[in-house]
Amino acid sequence: MIGQYQHSIDAKGRLFIPAKFREELGETFYVTIGLDGCLSVYSDTKWASLIEKVEALPLSKARSMRTLFANAAKCEPDAQGRILIPAKLREYAKLEKEVIITGASRCVELWNPERWAPIESEGLDPENLAAAMEELGF
Amino acid sequence: MIGQYQHSIDAKGRLFIPAKFREELGETFYVTIGLDGCLSVYSDTKWASLIEKVEALPLSKARSMRTLFANAAKCEPDAQGRILIPAKLREYAKLEKEVIITGASRCVELWNPERWAPIESEGLDPENLAAAMEELGF
DNA sequence: AGTCAGGTGGGGGAAAGTGGGGAATAGTAG
DNA sequence: CTACTATTCCCCACTTTCCCCCACCTGACT
After folding, report:
1. pTM: predicted TM-score of the whole model, two decimal places
2. What is the separation of C-alpha A110 from the centre of its chain, rounded to a whole number of angstroms?
């Protein structure tokens, strides 16, 4: 799941998911709250493995995952590849008109452009980029 | 991956990858942002090992890798060995018409000629070259 | 000169992306 | 229970992008 796209939520609240991502996500996927104010979209299988990990957690720690599940939604794209995002989630990520759809290796993330911009430019900063590559030993 | 070539991006945004590199890169490869304003091209296997390393990273560090994935693209050359470079990446590396394609041992790099020139002449400078060789203990 | 492989250019069709009409369902008020 | 509104889903039509294919050029080797 790599790449970056921009699409807008139409008048009926639908968001188009690029074909590239749909291929990898399968035909049903799960949207939930993500880090730093984005939404994360997982494929069926990734979601299942996430559930598995949470269930293996001691109860005390699993408690903090409550909101993750409370704010999750199962989405099935229509024939044109668009999904309907629950109002609650749209609000959390401040998704209004334009949405940035980015690949994040294990999942796809949905961003409000204004929130995404600083994160992207930070990662593009030569110092940070060099540090990141070094971290990977690449 | 060694050598240096120059090719131009055609009217449809396609860039020709020399046969020498295609042999080593395989038939699907990954283009992403590189250091000093170039683009890096990795083979399927190199990319897979990169993913592996990122997924092993603690979440806090993996987060800073977001831009790396958002600004990456999977490319499959057409029957003539050309790839389509996403506009976003082309912009990052300021690739317009002419492109320098260089071997960088582990990957192939794509450069705007004007950005490449100072880097090459710096590396060609006898003093720097000698210093670099010495660093290697060669 | 002829052949072959690498490289260049462009036409056309399929698929991706975009927008909106309208039916089915559910919720609300009268 | 009925009428009205809102939400969701399904379908159709249009535009744009991209990818597949073919034709041609150039240089190397015979």
Report:
1. 0.91
2. 5
